Amino acid sequence: MDKQRTEKIVIHTCCAICSGYPISYLKDLGYSPVAYFYNPNIYPDSEYQKRLEAERTLCRHFDTELVEADYNPQEYYDFVKGFENEPEKGLRCDKCFELRLLKTAKYAKSKGIDKFTTSIVISPHKNFDKLTQIGEKIAKQEGLEYFAVNFKKKDGFLKTNKISKELGLYRQNYCGCKFAMR
User: Fold this and answer.
1) Residue 5's pLDDT band (boundaries 50, 70, 90)?
2) What DSSP designation does 10 have?
3) Going by DSSP bridges, is the β-strand pair 115-118/8-12 parallel, antiparallel, or unpaired?
4) Cα 65 from chain centroid?
5) With contact defined as beta carbons under 8 Å apart, do 49 and 61 qualify?
6) C-alpha–C-alpha distance, residues 17 and 111, integer Å
7) Could you report the per-residue pLDDT of 50-81, keeping only the tens digit for each?
8) For residue 163, what are the contacts with CB-CB under 8 A and spacing of at least 6?
9) Which terminus of the chain has a smaller tally of CB atoms within 10 A, N or C?
10) Could you give the domains of the chain?
11) Above 70 in pLDDT, residue 4?
12) Crossing angle (nearest 10°) for helices 16-28 and 45-61
């Protein structure tokens, strides 16, 4: 069997809007993506449930395994403690990315999967280089490979929006945490 056709990669998915094209792209590369939905930052619970349901719909559409990690907002609040008043795109966001990518890496490692990535980078509001730096640091400490792919390239954001419209997926209007709602 062709190794490239069966190689798994764990992709942290922040929401269905952002993960549509990345999942499709990884499949086109020959990977078997495992969507890891870990987002304790999302507030309130009703918002979390809407995003999770949209991710379920997307993963069914792409016949992609979805892992629903525990939703524990306190874990997020503990991790970003002291950074609550940081501006959007500041150190609080970096800590949030670190928490979610660390959990993704630990999940991948626990399943014997040596590569991970994130759909967050497709957002035009997120810094690819910063996320790559965080992902590579975590990969090094966990003995894994962070697959740094800029899903924004080649109209990735337009493609992901097209997928979400075709599937009628829920579209949020803020990043996710209660601090971003301000």
Assistant:
1) low
2) E
3) parallel
4) 14
5) no
6) 26
7) 999 999 999 999 999 999 999 999 999 999 99
8) 20, 21, 24, 58, 169
9) N
10) 3-167 (3.40.50.620)
11) no
12) 30
Residues 93-107 have pLDDT tens digits of 999 999 999 999 999
Helical ranges in the chain per DSSP H? 3-6, 16-28, 45-61, 73-79, 91-110, 128-142, 156-167
Tokens 């008043």, residue located: 85
Query: What tokens does 109 get?
Result: 């490692």
In DSSP notation, 121-142 reads GGSTTS-HHHHHHHHHHHHHHH
Burial of residue 11 (CB within 10 Å: 0-12, 13-18, 19+) is buried
